[in-house]
Amino acid sequence: LGISIDKPNNLNYLYSLPNKIFSYIHAHIPILSSRLPEIEKIIHTYQIGNFIDNHQPQHIAQKIEETLNSPNYIRWKANTFKAEQELNWENEKEKLKSILRQHINH
Question: Where are the domains of the chain?
Answer without folding.
Answer: 2-104
